[in-house]
Amino acid sequence: MSYGAAAALQKAVFAHLMSDVSVSSLLDGAIYDALPAGVLPETYAVLGSEDVRGRADSSGAIARHDFTISVVSSAAGFAAAKTAAGAISDALVGVEFSLERGSLSDLTLMRTRATRLNGGTKRRIDLRFRAQIYDF
User: What pLDDT score was predicted for residue 115?
Assistant: First the structure.
């Protein structure tokens, strides 16, 4: 196993979401790796935690990357957050894109969790994805 393709995966996911018309229009480009200083938009997405495990098959080493993308919204109700989360899921699941290092063999949505934050004034949806990367 190698963690070497992790940065390439993050870069590709970020670029893919920024170039997706639906995601970009819903979030007005508010997709972050690190939250910026100052006032945040009403609804935004942030790339989050990652857990990587190795496994091998007959073709070589595979790294399984489980990563989270969170959608946070201060809009009333869950509708805005769920719409943005759905667009992110649609943009990533089953889509093939190239990586600067390694080869993406599969990208699936594993689970989601919707919660209220700050006494109910904000909503957060965590989307947990799994990517399998061959890193030869």
Answer: 95
What is the pTM for the complete model shown? 0.92
> Around 106, how many Cα atoms within 13 Å sit in the side-chain half-sphere?
10
Whether pLDDT at 122 is above 80: yes
**CATH level 3 topology of 6-134:** STM4215-like (3.30.2000)
Domain ranges of the chain: 6-134
